[in-house]
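ok trying again, last paste got cut off:
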Amino acid sequence: MATNQISIEFTPAQETGINTAFADIDTNFPFAVNMTKDERGSVPNIDNERYPYAQRTMDIHAPGNPNLVSGFAGTYADAQKDWHLMNQCEAMKQKALMLIEKLNDTQHLGASEVYKFMRQFYATAKLAAENNVPGADTVVDDLKSLFDLPERP
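nice, full thing came through this time. structure:
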């Protein structure tokens, strides 16, 4: 027996609320940067391997050795803002990634259920076409390229 695991949709209020929340995020992030792939690849960055060094530099070395801050790469105050921003973005990014994973999985399950429905609908249309039910041939002709594999010699 076929089962439908999700069989739900967003209410208009939920959809509006979610879209409003995304708009609010965009409004509250006016300084957001959007780089090309080339730009992203051309700027040095802090990855997981470099993070502990950056943390020690920002939390221990630079404040403990202000005479070593040259100013050529910006001030320590500017670097502190960048460091704080980077960590804020990481926390927000993790929340966004969690939501994206849920959106992807929910969409995937919904799509899977639609596909299962389509397969059963097509099988029923094929039986109906064999019994000369009006409209069944049109359905079978339209969907057969998806479901009927070509015969092999």
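cool. Residues 37-147 form one domain. The chain has a mean pLDDT of 94.
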